[in-house]
Amino acid sequence: MLIDTVAWVRVEDGRVLCARPKGKDVFYVPGGKREGAESDLETLLREVEEELTVRLDPETVAHVGTYEAPVPELPDGTVVRMSCYTGEYGGTLTASAEIEEVAWFSYADRPLVPPVDRLLFDDLQAAGLLR
Question: Would you give the distance in Å from CA 16 to the centre of its chain?
Fold first, then answer.
């Protein structure tokens, strides 16, 4: 089974933005699953606004990588695909009602995120973007 997601990669001062949904103990790079026939861009814009109450500028959104990894807590063969995008935003980053906590993670925080997010962390570290 494939879980198809998109994520917003926001790096500032050597740290990447992560969010912890209510009821979960794991942080994720913000984003989520598409609804219906949504495009990656439509999903990204909706999810970021839902989770962080900011609006991405669609003109600045750029694909930075797609990652796939197994999901250990789900049945064997379950894989998550995360298509990652950067983009400028307007507004103030604020955790919405569905987000418990927002944090800025360095590479040292890599063990706190799921396997698919760790692949992104590895690439950001290799590019010299994470502390």
Answer: 9
Domain boundaries defined on the chain:
2-126
What average pLDDT values come out for the chain (131 residues) when binned by 10 residues?
96 98 94 95 97 97 97 90 98 95 97 97 97 94
Task: Specify the pLDDT at position 74.
Answer: 87
Angle at 104 between CA 112 and CA 116, to 5 degrees: 40
- Phi first, then psi: what are they for 110, rounded to 5°? -50, -40
The answer to whether the CB of 61 falls within 8 A of the CB of 84 is: no
In CATH, which superfamily holds the domain spanning 2-126? Nucleoside Triphosphate Pyrophosphohydrolase (3.90.79.10)
Q: What residue ranges in the chain does DSSP mark as E strands?
A: 2-8, 11-12, 15-21, 31-33, 55-56, 62-70, 79-86, 89-90, 99-105
